[in-house]
């Protein structure tokens, strides 16, 4: 519903011809809402095929014969049953790149693997939220979106290599990979990740969300030079070395919290950015979109966030999401 469509929409934005193969009833995400489907399928064309029948199989083979890649986002059993793997399709095109997006791997079984389930299963939810509260899920589909981008990267890399073949990309593996330094700390040193108040970083101090006189501020101080600049602007002193700040986390957080209470989040953002200190007032998505009109594009009668990859000299052709089966020959 999301990972595969997002991957191929990014490719369409960058100029690829993307044909969306749908069952006769259409992609299930068409039933969620018009906005949901449109936000993930612009720039594509649609064809309806019954892949369980000989006619649909023949049509698929014809498409594969002239394509660079086939990306599939189904349960492993369905991918194998419908013959959507390289071993089944190489007869039509030796250089076809077949990408399978699944929950736990192409040979990992059919356990349900929606985004939130994978976030829970890989430790993301356990690491998120207040230490005294329950595990929390991020407010957007981080596993699906991350897997879509990873799959698109793998697809392009394999095409550039000039080899056909099967790529296996699972939501589980992508999310474990994205927990990189947390995973290494546990694997190499037995350090278990813990939830910290206000989303505090496990290494850097201070690096978290702070309350201010009005609103909240995200402050991310990674270098001693940032701390010195912050201290100058905020009128505080001490803890000049990174190791010293980490060893005295509570004292540093108390010091910064007291200092930030003297002004609003918006004002602190402006005051600190003049020094090059990473800081941002917490805003809502509507506020962020209103402040970033250049990120918004027109897609037919709708508006959407455009492609995040900007190529010098190239402008994406943002066309609306396809109508169901628009490529099918008229019948009757």
Automatic annotation (TrEMBL):
Q: Which InterPro entries match?
A: CoA-transferase_III_domain (IPR050483), CoA-Trfase_fam_III (IPR003673), CoA-Trfase_III_dom3_sf (IPR044855), CoA-Trfase_III_dom_1_sf (IPR023606)
Is this entry keyworded Transferase?
A: yes
From which domain of life does this come? Bacteria
Keywords, in A-Z order: Transferase
Any idea which GO molecular function terms this record carries?
Answer: transferase activity
Query: Which Pfam families does UniProt cross-reference here?
Result: CoA_transf_3
> What's the protein called, per UniProt?
CoA transferase
Q: What organism does the record attribute this protein to?
A: Gordonia hankookensis
Q: What does the organism's lineage look like at the top?
A: Bacteria, Bacillati, Actinomycetota, Actinomycetes, Mycobacteriales
């Amino acid at each position: 519903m999301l990972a595969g469509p997002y991957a191929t929409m990014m490719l369409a934005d960058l100029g690829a011809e993307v044909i969306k193969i749908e069952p006769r009833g259409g992609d299930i995400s068409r039933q969620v809402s018009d906005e949901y489907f449109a936000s993930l399928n612009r720039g594509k064309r649609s064809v309806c095929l019954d892949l369980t029948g000989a006619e649909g199989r023949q049509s698929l083979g014809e498409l594969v014969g002239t394509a660079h890649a086939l990306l599939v986002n189904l349960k492993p059993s369905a991918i194998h049953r419908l013959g959507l793997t390289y071993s089944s399709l190489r007869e039509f095109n030796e250089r076809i790149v077949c990408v399978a997006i699944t929950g736990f791997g192409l040979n990992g079984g059919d356990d349900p693997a929606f985004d939130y389930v994978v976030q829970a299963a890989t430790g993301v939810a356990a690491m998120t939220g207040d230490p005294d509260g329950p595990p929390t899920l991020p407010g957007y589909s981080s596993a699906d979106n991350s897997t879509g981008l990873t799959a698109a990267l793998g697809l392009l890399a394999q095409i550039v290599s000039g080899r056909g073949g099967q790529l296996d990309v699972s939501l589980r593996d992508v999310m474990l990979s994205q927990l990189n330094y947390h995973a290494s700390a546990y694997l190499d040193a037995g350090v278990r990740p813990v939830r910290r108040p206000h989303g505090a970083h496990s290494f850097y101090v201070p690096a978290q969300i702070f309350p201010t006189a009005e609103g909240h501020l995200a402050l991310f101080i990674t270098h001693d030079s940032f701390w010195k600049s912050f201290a100058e602007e905020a009128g505080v002193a001490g803890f000049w070395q990174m190791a010293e700040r980490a060893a005295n986390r509570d004292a540093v957080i108390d010091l910064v919290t007291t200092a930030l209470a003297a002004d609003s989040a918006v004002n602190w953002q402006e005051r600190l950015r003049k020094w090059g200190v990473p800081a941002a007032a917490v805003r809502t998505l509507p506020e962020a979109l209103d402040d970033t009109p250049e990120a918004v594009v027109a897609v037919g009668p709708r508006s959407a966030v455009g492609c995040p990859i900007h190529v010098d000299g190239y402008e994406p052709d943002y066309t609306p999401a396809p109508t169901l089966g628009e490529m099918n020959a008229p019948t009757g």
